[in-house]
Each structure stands twice: as structure tokens, then as C-alpha cells.
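Batch job 17 of 40 flagged for manual review because the log was empty.
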Amino acid sequence: MQFPNDIQAALLFERRVDDLESIVRTFLRIEEARSGTRFNVPESKPGLFYRLFGADEMTITFEYVDRAADMALFQQPLASRVTGLLCPDVRERLVRNRSMILINVSHGVLGNSPEAMQALALIGLPMEGQSLPQFKARLELCALAARIACDHAPPSVVHWTQSNQLIPGETFDAYAAPKTPSPLHVHPYLFGERGRSGEAPKVGIRTFGVRHFLGREVLVEPSVLPWAANYEIILTFLRIATIDNGYVIPDGDTFGPEDHSVSYRVVHRDAEADDLPLYVLTPLLHREHGFVSADYVPRDRIFDDRMPPPELMPGDAEAKMALANEWREKRAMAERIGARFTVRAKGPTSSAPPPPAPRIGQRPVFGRKKT
């Protein structure tokens, strides 16, 4: 399922918490003021459990669990290097955990339990909430509810299960406040090796969470660039694809900001054995960090795709028309999000052989393409 129906935030505390009813009351008041939505409360156990049901058949549950969380649930995020960077004492915090507040948001009255999915399949109905706008709405509502809970009762750690991240309670608001998608929704698993003596280490990123938006994860192979710089590019790539009129950068194209300071190539890699399909992002240029790949095509190789140099075009008329149509469609996609599309030729014009399909570059909100 691309768009997980059940979004959960688990707030972990080092003490008993008696604030659940006030948390729910505050959420109901803020959400009505924010969106005009009024939630009914068809089920409640004061201080322990509340089920809310509202517009667009959205169900929200708040549950207080007066016991420690199972440490086995956190083995994967604890194995992530980023978890230790975000919260060096995360293991100690988890060991001190004594109670939890679980917040779940889903579409439909049945949720996405195996029983519910089987029942819907038997009667030929699709799962509810399976669109990107509905998925984003669930993420944003769960984040809002968790932020309100954190304000009432500051937790030690928040486990955001959609991206399987453990976030310090005191910094959760900074993660949850930005517009979706944000770092809250994409867990960067780091990998690579230490550099040899005198060499900088090379770090790569394999994401968890992008698949919920785009159906694929993102891979950046190890490079000398700081992992945080590559991570920001991943988030930009995801935002371009999920904004209004947005789109996934096409296979083989490149993108970068309007100031020509950064450029990455995108390759759509099909699923391999025991793996998911991936978007592979390869850095070509990052001026802030003094990085220029041998494959980077400089700005002076840009040409007008509506009047391309004849020597760069295919000789076959049909191929030439197909290439011109491809450029026109990609220019339209970029312009719909207020970006610019450019085409670049690789190598000197005078000596470059006429390629059947020259590489191209486009510029979305953050983007341009090159070859």
C-alpha cells in the first residue's frame, strides 16, 4: 500500500501522565478553529482512550498506556546512524520510559487492519484514503495532535512510525511544524566507509518514507559531499513531486536551483532482486562545497530547445519530432510549477556527434536539467 492508512505517533514518557482528556479537548478546539472541522467522540474511556470521527471520514484515536514500550520495536531506528546524531542519549531515554500516549489517524471507520482489508476486498471495495492529498492530510493531522500533546505533556522521545524515526521530545515541534513533506517524513539511513588516511569519508543515503509519497525510495551513493547536503536535495526532489502541479523529475534528467549552484541527475532504477524500485540521485555540482563532477555540463552548453543546433538533432525526421515533443512536454511541466526548463549539449558543438536523444536539463521550483 503506497499511502499508509494508519499514521501513528507514539509519545514516550518517563513518568505517569494524566493529561489525556485536556489534550483531546485542546485538539478539538484548535482543529475546529483551524479548519472548521468538528469531530464527534463516539467512544471514550475518560483519561485512557478517545475515538474521534469527523470530516472526510477521518478517525483519530488518543490512547494512554500506563506501561513502558517494548524496546524490541525500536531496533531498526536505533540501528540508524541518524538516530544517534539527533539524540545521543536515545537509548537511555528509552530505558527510562514508563508510559505512552498513542495517537493514530486513519481514513474510514474500519482503519487498515488485516480484517478490514479482507472485508473490503470481499465486497470489492478499495481501501479508503488512498490518494496523496488524503495521505498528506493524515500526516498533518497526526502531527498537529502530537504537537498539542507535547505542549501539554512534554515526552522524552517521539516515535513517528511512518518514517520509523525516534525524535527527542524537545525537538519534535521543529520537525512537525514545516509543511508536508518534511524531515519528519523521510528517514535518511546513512552508509559508507571511512576515508583512507588523509581522505574525506564518503557517505551515502538510502531513504525510508519517500515510497509512501512516490512509490519508490531514494538512493544517493556515497560521496564526499556532507550527508546533510544530499538529504536536503532529497527533500527538494520530493517536494517538487508533491506540490500542486508537481511531477517527478524524468529518468535521466537533471535538476538544480535557479542560481545554478547545485545540480543532480535523476535515474529511475527498476526493482532488483530483494529490493524496491529506486530514484537514484547523483550529484554533479555543489558549489558551496566545491564539488564538480566530471559529468557536469556547464551553463555555456545551454541551447534554445525550440531552435536547436541541427548538428545536435537526430537525422531521422520522426526521431527529431519525438525529441521536440518530449522537450515541449517537459517545458510545460516545469512551467506549471513556476520553474524553467533548459537543454544542454554535452561536449563541444563542433565535435559532438548527433545523438539520437541528447540529454536535457530542466529547472523546477528547485530545478534545471542538464546532460
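Reviewer: the log was empty due to a logging misconfiguration, but the result itself is present. Confidence is low (pLDDT under 50) at residues 349-371. Unflagging and moving on to job 18.
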